[in-house]
Amino acid sequence: MDHTGNAPFFEIAQPPQRLPVEIPGVSLWWATLAQPETAIAQWLVWLTPEERQRAERMARPSSRYRAVVVRALLRGLLAQALGRESAVSPASLRFQTGAHGRPYLTAPFADGAVRDFNLSHSGDNLLVGILHSTAPPFWQRIGVDLESLQRSRDTTRLACRVLSVSEQSTLAGLSREESQCRFFRYWVLKEAFSKAVGAGFSLGFETIDFDIDAASAPYARALPKPYRPDDWTLQFLPVDPPFVAALALGGNQESKKSEQPFDS
Known about the structure:
By secondary structure, this protein is an alpha+beta fold. It has six helices and twelve strands. The longest helix has 22 residues, at 61-82.
């Protein structure tokens, strides 16, 4: 099965769309969580009993709805990627998480056509990144992050905690709107990198130093040990305003996996 274009097996009003990004062995998908009730009823059978129970325990109906749709869309996209040579049911996939909650596929799909995946959602929008086995071997992990520039947040105070001294200096003299936009460009890169390595906030975001003004693509000037800047490829993704999104691809140093169920 091809992993280009739209997701053909989603018989719904708004199927996931592939972002127009040409990176060898990488596919990036954008989907809306606002899906018809008929689709959700169909997708429920893809979820494990534990996944359905976790969704049902959520207090807000909107949270239960999103939990089901996020998991179903992820399962569908991964099944499509895994089923290039033979059919794979979305319901057959199993996951575990690392020490900081990063999801992974488990056997028998852990060493198949999908080398790694990652996801991020903001509001009613979902971003899924899939690193296929056809990707260059020096890319073992993928991380993606999606944020809305309309998100209500005190970025001035947060910048002092999560940006490097060099990054903070580039915000000086900017208008509030310009400063917020630049902050979130740094933020999505840091989130994408931290999600790729599976370390979360334990990395110390202020120790990560990015240059986002390079003519070609953003790059890392400094990363916490044991990560090396030369091992990582970073890219901003073409998403519509008010969103900003980033991708990180790199090596396989990461937090050790633990046998915990993946809770989206």
